[in-house]
Amino acid sequence: MPRTNDDPRARRSRASALAAATELLAEGGPGNITHAAVAARAKVGRATLYRHWPDLQALLLDTLTSAAHPMFRLGHGPVRDELVTYLQRQADWLNRPVSASVIATVMERAERDPAVRSLRDEMFGRAGEHLTDALAAAVARGELRAGVEEHTRDLSSRILGPLLFLRLMLGTQPDRETVADTVDAALTTWQPHG
User: Which of 21, 50, 112, 132 has the fewest Cβ atoms within 10 Å of its own Cβ atom?
Assistant: First the structure.
């Protein structure tokens, strides 16, 4: 991991380098990220990059971390509406070229790289915590049946799985109707019996 530095010039060069690395990732995947390419794109010296990121792995990991999108940050309204609104924003993010590159790189690298695996676990682990809290609040409001909180992982895979498959495997950009249908299908089992 890079050293922290409070120098405004160092912060600017880091931000510029991460923005350049993110663009390169979107354009050609992780193989596009080299010290030379990032330095040229960011208009910073290679020595500066090496000071911040002595190796490419650290640069790639920071690029992925800075470009990753928080998962399941829901408000306090009805859980179905919150999920549809949140997942539409998530789908909009996924529809950006850099997003597909970030998700694909994290999925591929997490199999072999403990640091990227940790990033993946952080992204989805925190997502699970946020969703569990939202589901517990929905149970308390009578929107969902008790016990749903114990099935957070299954529910999140039923919601995110189809959207990720559509975007990453089929190249389809999910629209609001698709998002709403996906949320409804995932929640139907947990609707209170009327």
Answer: 112
